C-alpha cells in the first residue's frame, strides 16, 4: 500500500524480527493515518537528500520489546521513523532537519550507539506534548543529551 509517492506501508512496517513481521503489519493497520504523516515528513527529507532508508518505522508491542524500545516510544503509535540517507552523513541529516527543514517534528535524535548510526524523527503536536516538540537530542547508546547547533 502506498502512503506517499515514495514511501509504502510495507517499508514503514518492516522489521528485522521476521517471526513478528505479519503481526507487526496487522497491528500497524490501526495507525495508517499517522504513518502517512511520517511518510510526508520523509518526503521532505527525500526532496533534499534523495533516497531515504527507513531502518525502523512502526513497532508493535512485541517488536518494540524485542529491540529494547521504550514502552512510550512513538514508534509503537506509528509516529516515528529511524532513517539514514546514503547521500549524506547522519550528522548533516540531523542538523538539516533541526536547523533548516522547517519540519514540525516532535523529536529529532542523532543516534550513534557503538558501530551504528541513524536519525530518529517523530511527529510533533498534537501527537507529542507541544512543550516537548522540536526537541533535538544526541544518543550515544547510553545517554541522551541536548544537541544544539
- Regions with pLDDT < 50 over 5+ consecutive residues? none
CATH architecture: 2-Layer Sandwich
Amount of helix: 25-40%
Count the domains: 1
CATH fold-level name? Muramoyl-pentapeptide Carboxypeptidase, domain 2
Spatial gap, N to C terminus: 38 Å
Summed over residues and divided by their number, the pLDDT gives a mean of 96
Structural class: alpha+beta
Widest sheet: strand ordering: 1-2-4-3-5-6
Order of helices and strands: HHHEHEHEEEE
Gyration radius, in Å: 14 Å
The gross shape turns out to be globular
DSSP summary: helix tally: 5
Sum up the structure in keywords.
149 residues; Muramoyl-pentapeptide Carboxypeptidase, domain 2; alpha+beta; single chain
How would you describe this protein?
The longest helix is centred in the first third of the chain and has 18 residues, at 32-49. Helix content is 32%, strand content 20%. The model has no long low-confidence stretch (mean pLDDT 96). With 149 residues, the protein is of the alpha+beta class.
Brief write-up:
The chain has 149 residues and is an alpha+beta fold. 32% of the residues lie in helices and 20% in strands.
Write the layout of secondary structure elements.
Blueprint: H1 9-13, H2 21-28, H3 32-49, E1 53-56, H4 61-66, E2 80-84, H5 90-100, E3 105-111, E4 118-123, E5 135-139, E6 144-146
Parallel strand pairs: 3-5
Antiparallel strand pairs: 1-2, 2-4, 3-4, 5-6
